[in-house]
Amino acid sequence: MRGRVLLNQLVSAAMLRRLAEGSGLADSLGRAKPVLARLTFAENSHVAKRIALDHVAEHNQKMWDRLATAEIPYTRPRGTPPASLPAKRRFLDKATNGRLAGITLDGKRALSLAGGGGWEPILFAELGADTTVFDISAGQLRTTRDVARKRGTKLRYVQGDMRDLSVFPDGSFDLVLHCHSLVFVPDAERVIREVGRILAPGGTYIASTMHPVTLRMYETWTGTGWNLKKPYFADGPMPYADASWEFGDTKIEAKTLEYGHRIGDLINAVAAAGMVVDGFWEWTPEWAGGGGEPGTDEQLDSVMPAFIELRARKLQPATMDAGPAGIAGRARRAGIAGRALTRPGAPRKAAATGSAPRSKRAAAKRRGTASRQR
342 exposed, middle or buried (CB, 10 Å; 0-12, 13-18, 19+)? Predict the structure, then answer.
């Protein structure tokens, strides 16, 4: 096992606390410092730590476990990858919209962030990457583990809140793929800052999430057009009436808390974390944007992008320190200034007239779908 510590059993938070206290790693308030970062995880290990950082994460964790237990297809890999390595790579490239073009996986260290339930971590490993999958939902991790075991694919599994990646030392990964999950946290910049820390210089970060304008428009059909539920510059969870996730005969209620992060804030957060954006896309999958009856999600997605996606590279230290104060420092100041200029006031009341019934939850545009339908 190349000297790795084998952790085939679940490591509890209490056990970790005892490890920390026994090694003098507790702070003056008695809280265990992040000892997980000092452990090396073996293939097929599943490490648990304190999970949700706040009530938002606790709530969304329960909702995703509920969806996974119901085996809603949006929480499971769909399709079957081919057998040969070149065909698997083509399958993966299609699943990731070509964003991995030019990136060799063999020998790389890859993190599938909030990636439980998808093919991506499994294919990363089968294409030669040393792969970890991280998710807040035990059910989603279990789904990936079950598929990987059937295929004989070795992965590491870590359950946690994506805003706290202290389990990983600095520079742990060459690639971080982050599918459709920033929408589920109120403070996306915290996630991105952590990604910038754990990404090695020259590494790649690919992230997608809901388009912040389109997300504000679902359920606002007036009969003649669309409104905004809340101003673009207003923070806070997005209100919506229909909490059903539907696929064929399967339907379940799971009202996740969701946030429409402004594009400028995301890009400034990436820059402040020491990364440079080298690609940005606004898009709707062909299968989700083919039109539809007026007032439906499908009709809105045919005229507005459902998602945004960005690709960024971690700068080399010399590049980050260039100039009087460094690029990252200037980006942080720009981000702060941008937030100060766009600080929202009290959000206006959302338009509530004429909302059309939704044929299916915006699940067709959420974390699991665009990456799992292949």
Answer: middle
Q: Counting beta carbons within 10 angstroms of the beta carbon of residue 102, is it exposed (0 to 12), middle (13 to 18) or buried (19 or more)?
A: exposed
Q: In the chain, how many H helices and how many E strands?
A: 12, 10
Contact (CB, 8 A) for 99 and 122: no
Q: The tokens of 372 are what?
A: 């799992």
CA atoms within 13 A on the CB side of 10: 10
Q: Which fold has domain 51-372?
A: Rossmann fold (3.40.50)
Inter-CA distances, 66 with 87, 157, 183, Å:
34, 20, 18
Asked if the model's pLDDT at residue 355 lies above 70, the reply is: no
% helix, strand, coil for the chain, step of 5: 35, 15, 50
pLDDT in tens, 113-163: 999 999 999 999 999 999 999 999 999 999 999 999 999 999 999 999 999
User: Model's pTM, two decimal places?
Assistant: 0.76
- Decide: residue 68, CB within 10 A, 0-12 exposed, 13-18 middle, 19+ buried: buried
Tokens 């059903």, located at residue: 244
Task: Judge residue 187's burial from the number of C-beta atoms within 10 Å of its C-beta, 0-12 exposed, 13-18 middle, 19 or more buried.
Answer: middle
Residue type, position 80, single letter: T
Q: How large is the angle between the packed helices 263-272 and 188-198, nearest 10 degrees?
A: 30
CB 17 within 8 A of CB 50: no
CA geometry: angle at 135 spanning 58 and 308, to 5°?
95
Within the chain, all domains assigned CATH 3.40.50.150 are found at: 51-372
The amino acid present at 37, given as its one-letter code, is A
